[in-house]
Specification:
Largest sheet: 7 strands, mixed
Number of helices: 16
CATH topology of one domain: Nucleotidyltransferase, domain 5
CATH superfamily of one domain: ATPase, nucleotide binding domain
CATH class of one domain: Alpha Beta
Mean pLDDT: 95
Shape: globular
Oligomer: single chain
Distance between the termini: 56 Å
Radius of gyration: 21 Å
Length: about 475
């Protein structure tokens, strides 16, 4: 018996077909998404049909994990009102500040929702819509997240023209993990409709929050649908994270997250108090810039990322004083949406291709090491550090990470862990068991090196020196 897992990320849709009993992957495929920070959801649907062709029909159960925070607005007939605003769209930064003030300040937000919203959160995008596209806001009667919309369509929800893709009329659902990234869901209270209403200016329908592993629908081909979840929650499920395992994912964004039993509430806003896909919690720190730091620097040097890695490894630790603050497209943690990148320490002696490459790798790792430290402030125990995502395939990243993080790092074998997590959730729904199926955790290679705290000290000095002028409106 097979199950399918779908990862609808910022850049592409990945589909894996797995054996339900042990998670063995029997087939996988992908299809690209358009670039940008807003996307017509039909592009996700088209990519899903392309990547899933020949696989979805073999599955007895299907799960969808997708990028968090995206705002999918629907009218009364289930048509999309406008292109979805994605998590990495920071135009709603002023609205985030306004909403924090209007609804009681950061302490209230943290205690009610587990997080203090930044421009990534759905609630801030709703306010942006109300202020900048009032006609579209007025037509919006319901709001979904990307994974909600895809699960809904797979189960027969209305398509872009208001027609069903299967069994029409199914109620949209979400899960507690993805709901926790909206800014209007509470770990203790459920939906906070007054938060959404304050943002958009009128009441809006929100999807039902399904229980973990609940069956929420069925495709026209007879496969059951699990609730789905957000991408980070899917990755945690796909890797089988245990307490004390901290995953650092290096993709378009950078994330550090850990599974815990109790909800967290960080009024500083550094740690988002998300829920996970199993009934537990997943405190998470997200940076806006991660692997793009490497690809952008490689482009500046006129090389590919493989050569960037080789150049970085030829430079000395600390890159002879060359330090990059990698806020290329603004930053989410720390919350500097209007920030830009800063390069410091260039001299006639230090201005080499090797040092620039090394500075890029060290900056990305130092930013993510900060993220792990923020998790520690919320009581997270860090016994094991795992590097995943496309950026973890860089030889320089793997070899330099232990010196920057100050501890050994494990790099699991490359795999589509978000899609695997979605498939594992589908297998869980299929089984009806109390816990997810015990799929074998991925094999990992351990990297060790001498800790070099001076690298992070050099980075922190630049980060802190620029804080005041990055904070200027």
């Amino acid at each position: 018996m097979y199950v399918a897992g779908i990862d609808s990320s910022t850049q592409s849709t990945k589909v894996v077909l797995c054996r339900a009993e042990d998670g063995e992957i029997v087939e996988e495929a992908s299809a690209a998404h358009p670039d940008g920070t807003e996307t017509d959801p039909r592009a996700w649907w088209d990519a899903l049909n392309e990547a899933g062709r020949g696989m979805l029909g073999q599955a007895s159960a299907i799960g969808v994990a997708a990028q968090q925070h995206g705002m999918v607005t629907l009218d009364e007939d289930g048509r999309t009102v406008r292109p979805a605003l994605l998590w990495n769209d920071v135009r709603s930064a002023p609205q985030a500040r306004d909403l924090i003030d209007e609804l009681g300040g950061p302490e209230v937000w943290a205690s009610r929702t587990g997080s203090v919203p930044t421009a990534s959160f759905t609630v801030t995008k709703l306010r942006w819509l109300a202020e900048n596209e009032p006609e579209a806001a007025a037509r919006t009667t319901s709001v979904l997240l990307p994974h909600d919309w895809l699960t809904w369509r797979l189960g027969g929800g209305a398509g872009p023209e208001g027609r069903g893709a299967g069994r029409a009329g199914r109620e949209p659902t979400t899960d507690r993990g993805d709901a926790s990234g909206t800014g209007y869901w509470s770990p203790g209270e459920g939906w906070l409709p007054e938060f959404a209403r304050t943002a958009l200016g009128h009441d809006v329908r929100l999807p039902r929050v399904a229980a973990p592993a609940e069956t929420v629908g069925e495709t026209s081909g007879g496969a059951i649908l699990s609730p789905g979840t957000g991408d980070n929650m899917g990755a945690a499920l796909g890797m089988g994270l245990r307490p004390g395992d901290v995953a650092v994912s290096i993709g378009t964004s950078g994330t550090a997250f850990v599974t815990v039993e109790k909800s967290t509430a960080d009024p500083s806003g550094m740690v988002a108090g998300f829920a996970d896909a199993t009934g537990r919690f997943l405190p998470l720190v997200c940076t806006l810039n991660a692997a793009r730091i490497l690809t952008t620097t490689a482009g500046l040097l006129g090389v590919d990322t493989g050569e960037l890695s080789r150049l970085a490894l030829r430079a000395r630790p600390g890159a002879d004083g060359v330090t990059l603050l990698p806020y290329l497209d603004g930053e989410r943690t720390p919350n500097r949406p209007e920030a830009t990148g800063v390069l410091r320490g260039l001299t006639t002696a230090s201005a080499t291709r090797e040092n620039l490459a090394r500075a890029a790798v060290e900056a990305m790792l130092a930013s993510l090491a900060d993220a792990v430290d923020y998790l520690r402030t919320q009581g997270a125990t860090v016994r094991r550090l795992l590097l995943i995502g496309g950026g973890a395939r860089s030889g320089a990243v793997r070899r330099l990470a232990p010196s920057v993080f100050g501890m050994p790092v494990d790099v699991p074998e490359p795999a589509e862990y978000v899609a695997i997590g979605a498939a594992r959730q589908a297998a869980w729904a299929l089984s009806g068991d109390a816990e997810p199926p015990p799929w074998r955790p991925p094999a990992a290679q351990t990297y060790e090196d001498t800790p070099r705290p001076e690298i992070r000290e050099q980075y922190a000095a630049l980060r802190d020196d620029t804080a005041a002028w990055h904070a200027q409106p």
